[in-house]
Design a protein that fits this description.
This is acetate--CoA ligase. Belongs to the ATP-dependent AMP-binding enzyme family. One of its GO terms (biological process) is acetyl-CoA biosynthetic process. InterPro entries: AMP-bd_C, AMP-bd_C_sf, AMP-binding_CS, AMP-dep_synth/lig_dom, ANL_N_sf. The chain is α/β, with parallel strands linked by helices and 572 residues long. The protein has 18 helices and 26 strands. Strands 2-1-11-10-12-13-14-15-16 form a nine-stranded mixed β-sheet, sandwiched between helices. A five-stranded parallel β-sheet has the order 4-3-5-6-7. The structure holds 5'-O-[(S)-ethoxy(hydroxy)phosphoryl]adenosine.
Length: 572
């Protein structure tokens, strides 16, 4: 068994075993102000606390994209987020209201997201690639009252049929579309006060964020998190990211996904680190350039990105000085041992895998800088959290046996509900005392967990989580498509790609042009990242007698594997 030894050095988590024995979450509370007030606000703790404790002049945000390059101190961030908070308050936004944020990365995204949380609202980040139907589904389900967006994206917000939606706030200098519903972000921000008075103190169990994510059946679900989560954002960013105040930290995830909020906003800033945000698209030259330019010390990214960097020409790597890096981490998909070895070769650092989910709110199973790494393993549970492999009845399985990866229920950043969908929420906790993740894994004799796969049909493609159902539903809206089944097909770089099996309506001709047209249909109506890279036409699709497409059979076809029990299949 390959083991990479613990790193020499001093780390925030010095002795894993000892901390597992002695730690409880009450200790973390002392870092924050509610210890004094009994009330909290995660946005205050993230930004304002640093100003109140004398760190106002420290750089909080280093933002850049192809056009802009800006730097904000904690004092600047406090002023800007206060202005956003006043803007929302003056519009009459009330505690608990859902405010959606639908914009590409920019400093303004961070101002409005934190400003909304300051007034006690629940923010809903939406990935910029979503098209009209995806936007509608999320706004409808959450009954959002407000959405903040940019001129490029505003036409994708279908406000006529969303009765709850009262305000569309548009950033940028362009003229607003006609209608009372449209408001200029720049004007309102300029006019707003920077004082503290818009800040609402709330309870630990009050909500602050709603992240929509995909399952294998049904519509996207709104995963609801409460201010309490900050304990775990703070503590894991300390232990696992090993963040200190002098770190320059870069999380490559977009805030439309949970990694981009928990560890692109809260984890680093709760610890007072300098946070790098790079807008625009991925390119190896740009990414290495970002590390070089800002002297990034701690870097949190994903296996697909590492694999794409691996495939880039060596000259791209050699052009840049990456010696500032001291700690590298990964999340979202299985991290191949090969990638860990590559990281060791090119950066002289071990890449540390971390495991968690939108529903878990923060990291749960991780590798630590002070501990040995087994390449291919996700690591061990953080102190304060218990994980196990259980069978379908809740019995814990012995080492090296594969089963359901489950977490002892009740950690601070655990989701508190699925918006409007209690049955869905309860499914995760159907086995008394446990949260069942939907991943299969095993645990070895040393307590390290090894990921084996999803036991549902959720597709992880290029680190993004995509539900087959939403794509299938859209596909069958295309006039040529009769039936569609969508699966993840293993792919060397992206982990999985999206593959659609399609049965055409009678009279329709199979052609490459039609495949292209169907792809374009998904891209313009749903989202670019949901487009099936591969489409295969079939005369008919395998279905159960109740008419459900059997994705399991599609997967077996794809992988040339036995199709298993077909007794429920409809053979007409
Ligand atoms: C997968 C992302 C293997 C897993 C933070 C999980 C991983 C899903 C790892 C959640 C890992 C996450 N190794 N697989 N280290 N981390 N996953 O909600 O299948 O977008 O259930 O959260 O990603 O995806 P989500």
């Amino acid at each position: 068994m390959e083991v990479l030894e613990a790193q020499q050095g001093t780390y925030q988590l010095e002795d894993y075993e000892k901390m597992r024995e002695s730690f409880d979450w009450e200790q973390t509370k002392e870092a924050f102000s509610w210890h004094r007030t009994g009330k909290v606000n995660i946005a205050y703790e993230t930004i304002d606390r640093h100003v109140d404790e004398g760190r106002g002049n420290k750089t909080a945000l280093l933002y850049s994209d192809a056009k802009r390059e800006e730097r904000y101190t904690f004092q600047d961030m406090k002023d800007k987020t206060n202005q956003a908070a006043h803007m929302f308050k003056e519009m009459g936004v009330e505690k608990g209201e859902r405010i959606f944020i639908f914009m590409p990365r920019s400093p303004e995204l961070y101002f409005v997201l934190l400003g909304a949380i300051k007034v006690g609202a629940v923010v809903g980040p939406l990935f910029e690639a979503f098209m009209q139907d995806a936007v509608r589904a999320r706004l409808e389900d959450s009954e959002a009252t407000t959405i903040v967006t940019t001129p490029d994206l505003v036409s994708r917000i279908p406000h006529d049929d969303l009765p709850a939606l009262k305000r569309i706030i548009v950033a940028g200098e362009q003229d607003l579309p006609a209608g009372d519903i449209f408001i200029s972000l720049d004007e309102k921000m300029k006019a707003a006060s920077t004082d503290d008075s818009a800040l609402e103190w709330v309870d630990l169990e009050d909500g602050f964020i709603l992240h929509y994510t995909s399952g294998s059946t049904g519509k996207p679900k709104g995963v609801y998190h409460v201010h309490h989560a900050m304990l775990q954002h703070y503590q894991t960013a300390k232990w696992v990211l090993d963040l200190r105040e002098d770190d320059v930290y870069w999380c490559t995830a977009d805030p439309g996904w949970v990694t981009g909020t928990s560890y692109g906003i809260f984890g680093p800033w709760l610890n007072g680190a300098t946070n790098v945000v790079r807008g625009g698209r991925f390119s190896p030259d740009d990414w290495y350039g970002t590390i070089d330019k800002y002297n990034v010390t701690v870097w949190y990214s994903a296996p697909t990105a590492f694999r794409m960097l691996m495939a880039a020409p060596k000259e791209t790597l050699d052009k840049h000085d990456l010696s500032s890096l001291r700690h590298i981490l990964s999340v979202g998909e299985p991290l191949n041992p090969e990638v860990v070895r590559w990281g060791w070769d090119v950066f002289q650092h071990r890449i540390h895998d971390t495991w968690w989910m939108t529903e878990t709110g923060a990291m749960l199973i991780c590798n630590y800088p002070s501990e040995p790494i087994k390449p291919g393993s996700m690591g061990r549970p953080i102190p304060g959290v218990d994980a196990a492999i259980i069978d379908d009845h809740g019995n814990e399985l012995p080492p090296n046996e594969m089963g359901n990866l489950a977490i002892k229920a009740g950690w601070p950043s655990q989701m508190r509900k699925i918006w409007n969908n209690e049955p869905k929420f309860n499914e995760y906790f159907a086995i008394e005392g446990w949260y069942v993740s939907g991943d299969t894994a095993y645990r070895d004799e040393d307590g390290y967990f090894w990921f084996q796969g999803r036991n549902d049909d959720v597709i992880m493609t290029a680190g993004e989580r995509v539900g087959p159902f939403e794509i299938e539903s859209k596909l069958v809206e295309h006039p040529s498509v009769a039936e569609a089944g969508v699966i993840g097909k293993p792919d060397e770089i992206r982990g999985h790609i999206i593959k659609a099996f399609i049965a055409l309506r009678s009279g329709e001709e199979e052609s490459d042009e039609l495949k292209e047209e169907i792809r374009k249909f998904i891209k313009t109506e749903l989202a670019a990242h949901a487009v099936p890279r591969e489409i295969e036409f079939k005369d008919k699709l395998p279905k159960t007698r109740s008419g459900k497409i059997m994705r399991r059979v599609l997967k077996a076809w794809e992988l040339d594997e036995p199709t298993g029990d077909l007794s429920t299949m409809d053979d007409n």
